[in-house]
Design brief:
A two-stranded antiparallel sheet has the order 1-2. Helix 5 runs antiparallel to helix 6. The chain contains eight helices and two strands, in the order αββααααααα. The chain is globular, with a radius of gyration of 19 Å. Helix content is 79%, strand content 4%.
């Protein structure tokens, strides 16, 4: 189960970086398409933290960071390769997989800092308070996604004409916290499954 969580977490991180280039409009809120799957990663790292502890969770974060760096580098390499004659979609391919390094830098910086903050708060709550797992997830995600939204939007769009940075930060944060609220039951489902497996082993 833990291997699946780690794999899913890293997959969500990579998918988020690929899909971040498309903005989507939700009523009056404009957010990157990646925000929906990216928001799940904060609950997933909490689940990994719950099972493996803070140090292992940090190692998973570094592994996902390395995977995203590799993705960014290889995408640039693939774009630079000469396209086959008759291939009509080189420009579209580059547009989707070749975001500016400003966006990539913003994404990776925000991800690394926010994920490490999430791990620290989650571990602190478990050590000092212990109870109320739903609150542990909610508080750690509320703080980490706040920093994630500020860092990403500021680096990616700060000073760029046509973007309202405060509105973008607020929109991202609202969507991320909404997804966090929906995903909180995951931690109880994983715990229940673990207890069931342990009980079966004892029998």
């Amino acid at each position: 189960m833990v291997i699946l969580l780690i794999g899913f977490y890293i997959a969500c991180q990579v998918i988020a970086n690929v899909t971040a280039t498309k903005p989507v409009e939700l009523g009056s809120i404009v957010v990157p398409a990646a925000v929906f799957i990216y928001a799940l990663t904060f609950t997933l790292i909490d689940l990994i933290n719950e099972r493996l502890g803070k140090q292992r969770a940090r190692q998973v974060i570094y592994a996902a960071f390395a995977a995203n760096v590799l993705l960014a580098i290889y995408c640039q390499f693939a774009i630079a390769l000469p396209e086959a004659s008759g291939y009509p979609d080189q420009e579209a391919f580059a547009g989707v997989l070749g975001p500016t390094w400003r966006i990539v830098t913003a994404s990776l910086t925000a991800y690394l800092i926010a994920s490490l903050i999430d791990v620290e708060i989650f571990a602190w709550w478990r050590r000092r308070i212990g109870r109320y797992k739903w609150a542990r997830v909610l508080v750690s995600n509320a703080v980490s996604t706040f920093f994630d939204s500020i860092i990403f939007i500021t680096i990616a769009f700060g000073g760029v004409s046509g973007y309202d940075v405060p509105d973008l930060i607020g929109g991202q944060y609202v969507v991320k916290m909404g997804i966090t609220m929906v995903s909180i039951p995951l931690i109880y489902l994983v715990r229940a499954r673990r207890l069931r497996v342990e009980a079966e082993r004892v029998v």
